[in-house]
Amino acid sequence: MKRADKSSATPDASLADDGEAYSHKGLTYPLGRKGPEPGELIRIADGVGWARLPVPWSLKHINVWLLDDGDGVAIVDTGLDIAPCREAWETLIAGPLAGRSVTRVICTHFHPDHIGLAGWLTRRFGVPLWMTREEWLFARMLTADVRDAPPEEAFVYWRAAGWDEKRIEAEATKGWGRFSSVVSPMPVSFVRVREGDTLRVGDRDWRVVIGSGHCPEHACLVEEAGGLMIAGDQVLPRITSNVSLSLSEPEADPLGDWLASIAKLKALADDLLVLPSHGEPFTGLHARLDALDEGHRGRLDALHAHLAEPRRAVDCFPILFGRKIDDNSLGLATGEAMAHLRRLEVEERAARETQGGVNWYRAVRGG
Ligand SMILES: [Zn+2]
């Protein structure tokens, strides 16, 4: 049986939570603050159902959406490939979904809690997987990339961030490829969805709106006529999504992509009922986007001030997270700190100098 390793995979949530009062500012929860129990299906609107699957990390759950699709249902997001998620699906299939067929599986993005059971579900029902190409490629790549030890690029990245040699040596003894420990083998073929596509699902037309920064090509589904938005991890009500500089592309600017996506999503109607992957459906899209934007810009400014003296990524944790970073969260904290530092670099507010493989950052302008 597969077990979710605490330190495995990419968690969806940032370590920099904004606090209860702040993160609910301007939001309302028309369906209340309690979600469905495992195996239960809550009807949100005509032909739109909400179910929840357990997640072992601090997230606790992922929301999945079941859309009436002709004679059957389309599944949006799937949960991890771990026993409790499979059991929750079995309960749904034998209960609220009894007698109904599944028409397709749609995934918002490649993170394991979203895509973990995509292969299992599509094979079980003999249906296609629909998702964006970059997300499908990432999932295919990561499930195939299993090694006895981390690749050299990982050591370079950890050293650059300022990890001590003892910690780096400890990583060297671990295997690589934990993604596949919680993700069922991916379908080899898929149906591509892209920006601006309209997916006709049952009586509803869902428009694909792509966001980036949390992952490369995240699909949100917006159904304007019914006032609904399946937001995945692109907009979460309670927690800031994790935005990390990835090992695959260490010169990328994911936080820049994320801030640009926030601005793009502000073009959507403010009165949509947002269906997030974690937390409860809410209204107040623009207020939430503004709060996320402010949160990141505030952290960037604080980080800029902190760089009056040269710092490594590991020296920035107290400023960014205001909490102690333990061994389990070191990888996530590092990825997020690197994303913020990289953003300051791209904004030409910080300069990077590499000494002995370690990146040192300092502020280069007032601010
Ligand atoms: Zn995610």
What amount of the residues lies in strands?
15-25%
Structural class by helix and strand composition: alpha/beta
How many structurally independent domains? 1
Extract low-pLDDT stretches. Answer: 1-10
Radius of gyration: 20 Å
Oligomer: single chain
**Main sheet properties:** 7 strands, mixed
What is the strand tally? Answer: 14
What's the average pLDDT? 92
Ligand species: zinc ion
* CATH H-level superfamily title: Ribonuclease Z/Hydroxyacylglutathione hydrolase-like
Name the CATH architecture.
4-Layer Sandwich
End-to-end CA span: 52 Å
What does this entry look like structurally?
By secondary structure, the chain is α/β, with parallel strands linked by helices. It has one domain: Metallo-beta-lactamase, Chain A, CATH 3.60.15.10. It contains 11 helices and 14 strands. The strands form 3 sheets. It has a 7-stranded mixed sheet. A 5-stranded mixed sheet has the order 8-9-10-11-12. Helix 8 runs antiparallel to helix 9 and helix 9 (285-306) crosses helix 11 (330-346). The longest helix has 22 residues, at 285-306. It is globular, with a radius of gyration of 20 Å. The chain binds zinc ion. Zinc ion binds next to loops. Residues 12, 109, 111, 214-215, 233 line the site of zinc ion (ZN).
